[in-house]
Amino acid sequence: MGSKYPRSVRGCLPPWALMLQGALVLIFFFFTSYDTSSKDQKKLLGTYQVVQDLSVMAALGLGFLTSSLRRHGWSSVAFNLFLLAVGVQWAVLLDGFLNQPFHGKVSIKLSSLPPAAMSATSVLISAGAVLGKASLVQLLVMALVEVTAFSTLRMLDRRVLNMDNHVSMMHIHVFAAYFGLTVAWFLSKPLPEGVEEKEKMATSPSLFAMLGTLFLWIFWPSFNSALLDIPNERKLAVLNTYYALAVSTVIATSASAWTHPQGKINLTHIHNAVLAGGVAVGASCHLIPYPPLAMGLGLVAGLISVSGAVCLPVCLHRVLRIHDTSGVHYTFGLPGLLGGITYIVLMVLQASWASSPWVGFQVLNDAGALSLAVAMGLASGLLAGLVLNLKIWRAPHVAKFFDDQAFWEVRVLTHNMLDFKCMNLTGFLL
Amino acid sequence: MRFKFPLMAIGLEVAMIVLFSLFVQYETDHNTTSHINNTMAADMDGFLKLYPLFQDVHIMIFVGIGFLMTFLKKYGFSSVGINLLIAALGLQWGTIAQGMLHSHGKKFQIGIKNMINADFSTATVLISFGAVLGKTSPIQMLIMTIIEISFFAGNEYLVGEIFKASDIGASMTIHTFGAYFGLAVAGVLYRSGLRRGHDNEESVYHSDLFAMIGTLFLWMCWPSFNSAIAETGDKQYMAIVNTYFSLAACVVTTYAFSSLVQHRGKLDMVHIQNATLAGGVAVGTCADMTIHPYGSMVIGSIAGIVSVFGYKFLTPLIATKLRIHDTCGIHNLHGLPGVMGGLAGIVAVAMGASNTSTMAMQAAALGSSIGTAVVGGLTTGLILRLPIWGQPLDEYCYDDSVYWEVPRWREHDHHFHDPGDHSELEPEV
């Protein structure tokens, strides 16, 4: 057993965070400038709307989605905000360096914020898998590695495989899920007795998680259409996402009741599986011409997600000894894979209707992009996992997993303590 | 409470309706003959373009600030509920007060900018409400709303029309003003009976999580707040980008310094809830100037540091030495960063980031905001001290049950779903 007093984390977070922020300010000083081109007001505010929607999803949606652990709510929400702030700054820079024609200075357009916010979202998704097992400094390092890897992935997709912006961005779910799972595999130590108790959910934290789910659900059409420029594709994307989400909600609720011996609904399934439709339809949402197709996709995604939630922790994760705290694998990973495969099939159908001679090449190319996303996720997750296991980050002791107390100054907490205080006071008065 | 409050509220609302009928017109039914249809269509277009920004500001006022104040364990109803009451009354009175000043007492048309400005004027009252949270009655808050918005409109007229100072995100006219007004009121209403603190003046685990909802909404919508009334095009773009990066940088330094000043390097929820927003306040004045992204990041970082230090060291000092008890710590979230924003504006103008204003005028604007706020706050405080407004007794401060019908089993609700577990989190040995 470790000592009763966990190590102080004072020497750890402040220097790293301040150094990083200082470095970011310096890089911004040398390499960024405003966008000086003239702006159309309508377009400007349109882009700003998208930025707003994405930050609602990232800060509020993903923050609260993972807050269902009974003693880990503060960390879920607040660490999420921190990672978003770091991730966005780093992603803006990297996108500028890697994905735009680079002339000495990165010009910061308003339209460079949505992709940056989405790249930062990948960190927030992966953080769900290691939730409660990593300190803030470890998460910070993970964020830097992951944003770098994801930007590289997008650059490769664009330069080598000629994928468009939207599709390469929609590989985010697969990438982030497998990245998170790999890191979680490195951080999963045998958990001591009693930790399961902390993992249990209480009613009101589940409601908080529901808040996150609802915000994600409401704004998902914006996420899927954020990077599309052609109005018609955008309209299709919004509609298809909307239908897919609706269907996956219905399916998730009924499938959850179906898997329970007494037909009761499990709120954890609802939290995650209602979003599966939005994830699955992501890559192909601008291509699907008929709503029923999107709805079918939502149906399959909902089923996969719920059955994943039921089976995966028991079979796969136990065998591999991965502890996936908030179910990233079945919320984002599997539906994301489904979406990637659907995209390949749709492209093949389109190409064969047009009887283009490039069908084989097209399949190879798209399948390559999808497997590149998975491979990149696994490889960079491996790297991040190795780095995170270094002693210098002062990981929390395993007894302090899933517990806010390791990181937070918690003032008055218990009724016992209150009673104790009152007794003291009465004693004092007497 | 039974009769005073309803009478007061109904009376004020009737007065508002009468004032609206006397002074307010739609934009469209004016001068239909002299304007051709073309310009009318353009006006409506502008209205709808700014409507999303107005919506964001609305979210900040009603959801953001309201939930930010729900951190007290027994005062959640009042925080959100009275916030709604103040904001609803305040935006009506703000429309009238600002419209009359700018039109010099004649009738005026109401457009999207009036609505945004009315929301801004309620923000001052809600900021001040943070300082006296838990220690006042709803009637007192109604009175404070009316008086504070009058002072605010006067000061805003002085800064905008006479000094012609630049204050786009209103660091000075809203944040600094609201904070010092609230502090002055809190100073006059000081309760020496609560010198040693109050049992209810603390948070519980879930109330802090609720407050985090408010923080997140404010954090996300702040770029809209700072850019809502900016000139369209370049300036609006810069206001958005600067605020965005200032906020991001502020979050990182806040976490770092919170961990640095706390016992054993832990984070403090109060700092995270509030200081992460200081970056948005501090960049307000110079948001639409060419300060470059790195400049806004520097401003945001410093604001986070100042705010954390304020919570850690200054608030206890002010409470004991100056006898001003600031419940939400608005001095650290709005006061200091607001002043910092004013100073940053002076520096930015001196460095030539803007050509619309001069250093002297910026300084005068900052001075007049603080001066008006303190004078107005002291006056309001003296009026609110009269013992006829149904103030709560010392022992019933920070308690919803004085003014609200409260469910009986509120504080035991987590026993309800988990009878075995009496402690949310054991104290560390």
From TrEMBL, chain A:
Domain Ammonium transporter AmtB-like: residue ranges: 23-392
Gene Ontology cellular component list: plasma membrane
GO annotation, biological process: ammonium homeostasis
Compartments reported by the entry: Membrane
Superkingdom: Eukaryota
Membrane-spanning intervals of the chain: 12-34, 46-65, 77-93, 168-188, 200-220, 240-258, 295-316, 328-349, 369-390
Key words of the record: Membrane, Transmembrane, Transmembrane helix
GO-annotated molecular function: ammonium channel activity
Membrane topology per record: Multi-pass membrane protein
Family statement: Belongs to the ammonium transporter (TC 2.A.49) family. Rh subfamily.
Name assigned to this protein: Blood group Rh(D) polypeptide
Originating gene: LOC100342463
UniProtKB/TrEMBL annotation, chain B:
Annotated TM spans: 6-26, 47-69, 75-94, 115-133, 139-158, 170-189, 209-225, 237-257, 294-314, 335-353, 359-384
Topology of this chain in the membrane: Multi-pass membrane protein
Keywords of this entry: Ammonia transport, Glycoprotein, Membrane, Transmembrane, Transmembrane helix, Transport
Catalytic activity: NH4(+)(in) = NH4(+)(out); CO2(out) = CO2(in); methylamine(out) = methylamine(in)
GO cellular component: ankyrin-1 complex; plasma membrane
Pfam families reported for this sequence: Ammonium_transp
Any one GO MF annotation of this record: ammonium channel activity
Key word Electron transport present: no
UniProt-listed InterPro entries: Ammonium/urea_transptr, NH4_transpt_AmtB-like_dom, RhesusRHD
Domain Ammonium transporter AmtB-like: 15-403
Subcellular location: Membrane
A biological process from GO: intracellular monoatomic ion homeostasis
Quaternary structure annotation from Swiss-Prot or TrEMBL: Homodimer. Heterotrimer; a RHCE monomer interacts with a RHAG homodimer. Component of the ankyrin-1 complex in the erythrocyte, composed of ANK1, RHCE, RHAG, SLC4A1, EPB42, GYPA, GYPB and AQP1. Interacts with GYPB (via the N-terminal); this interaction bridges the (RHAG)2(RHCE) heterotrimer with the SLC4A1 Band 3 I dimer complexed with GYPA.
Family: Belongs to the ammonium transporter (TC 2.A.49) family. Rh subfamily.
PANTHER family linked to this entry: AMMONIUM TRANSPORTER, AMMONIUM TRANSPORTER RH TYPE A
Name by which UniProt lists this protein: Ammonium transporter Rh type A
Annotated organism of origin: Oryctolagus cuniculus (Rabbit)
The encoding gene: RHAG
